[in-house]
Amino acid sequence: MRSRLFLKIYLTLLASLAAVALASAAFVWLGQGEEESSWQSQRARFVAALIPPDMDLQSIEATLERFSRAFDADIAVYDPRGRLIASAGQPLPRDVLERRWRHGRGSFHTMVTELPDGRAVAARMARPFRPSGRNPLTYLALIAGVIGLAAYPVVRHLTSRLERLRRGVDAWGRGDFVARVPADGSDEVAAVAKSFNKAADHVERLIKSNRALLANASHELRSPLARLRMAIDLYEQAPDENRKEEIVRNLAELDTLVEEILLASRLDHVEKLDAPESIDLLALVSEEGARHGVEVVGTPATVIGDARLLGRLVRNLMQNALRHGVPPVTASVQQVDSAVELKIRDQGPGIPDSESVRVFEPFYRPSGRSEATGGWGLGLALVRQIAERHGGAVRYESPSGGGACFVVTLPAHRAARKIN
């Protein structure tokens, strides 16, 4: 079954060919008229040169005899009044001068040529005496037919690729998020297929990320909820200040976890920052360091970004170092070429090289850690998301003196100089 798009394109092509053929036929017809007129004029001058007005009757008859034998034709010359002057071959019909040019009986053709002095030469021959006997309209029809046949596989190939693209989009729209379309070639159809596959990959990653986030979040939420339920039950049986503090601590943990989940989900769906501004990164890190008791050193460096998100990045790194590392925890800010580097280091056991990349995955739990010990949650995953939204990156390094060091690299902002 042929697609509607194929029929539209192919019928449009055939209609265009038909229009070109008709236009060409009109031009050929007009050109033939002009060619015929020119040919008649040249023919009259030629015959007039062969039979000049001052030629005697005997010479005219001899000339007509030679022409009659050469062209196998019946020829006659008439004066301006239509009276016969001389002839050769069989007698011509009396109304020959009114016919000018026409087909006679059988396969004979009659032609009348008017000379400049008013005389007329009539000839009846078995074959037409014309410059060309080929009909160009036949060639036009043949060319149009060949082009129509040659265009069929080309149009079919193009529309079949569009059909495959449509089927792939339909399958993806029905929920088959792993469906992709062939992207072979380098034309616009291939570009659309590549764009679709790229968008489908991005959506599939988002869906997988959200599913993993929900699955891990539901698992992580069970522990504080269970502790909270137990603490509330114990507090109802025997109110105690320590149990009240436990309830408040579990609520704070739940609140932090829900906030991180919402922030991670929002960062997954934004491509750029809402209202970026110039930020002194050293001042921001120093403020967070004063809150958490972390020593901060370095030089002032300016970056462009969201102060609230960058503050969350620094806070998560410091809290991660204080929770999983060993004091003292230090932070440094320095500008290296066109980038600003933030390093936060602790003196803990560090992270194995095999897990230095996976620690940035949401709710990643290193090997050997029990559920009670806990994993990294969303802290480092948020650090990576925030850094990438600011055009930067984060990595883990193993210092030579031991411990763990996380390095965040952000593009440096260079203010334009004022020209006096």
From TrEMBL:
InterPro entries (UniProt xref): 2C_sensor_his_kinase (IPR050980), HAMP_dom (IPR003660), HATPase_C_sf (IPR036890), HATPase_dom (IPR003594), His_kinase_dom (IPR005467), HisK_dim/P_dom (IPR003661), HisK_dim/P_sf (IPR036097), Sig_transdc_His_kin-like_C (IPR004358)
PROSITE patterns cross-referenced by the UniProt entry: HAMP, HIS_KIN
SUPFAM superfamilies per UniProt: ATPase domain of HSP90 chaperone/DNA topoisomerase II/histidine kinase, HAMP domain-like, Homodimeric domain of signal transducing histidine kinase
Membrane topology listed for this record: Multi-pass membrane protein
Ranges for domain Histidine kinase: 216-414
Compartments it resides in: Cell membrane
Keywords assigned by UniProt, alphabetized: ATP-binding, Cell membrane, Kinase, Membrane, Nucleotide-binding, Phosphoprotein, Plasmid, Signal, Transferase, Transmembrane, Transmembrane helix
EC number: 2.7.13.3
Domain HAMP: 156-208
Protein name in UniProt: histidine kinase
Taxonomic classification: Bacteria, Pseudomonadati, Pseudomonadota, Alphaproteobacteria, Hyphomicrobiales
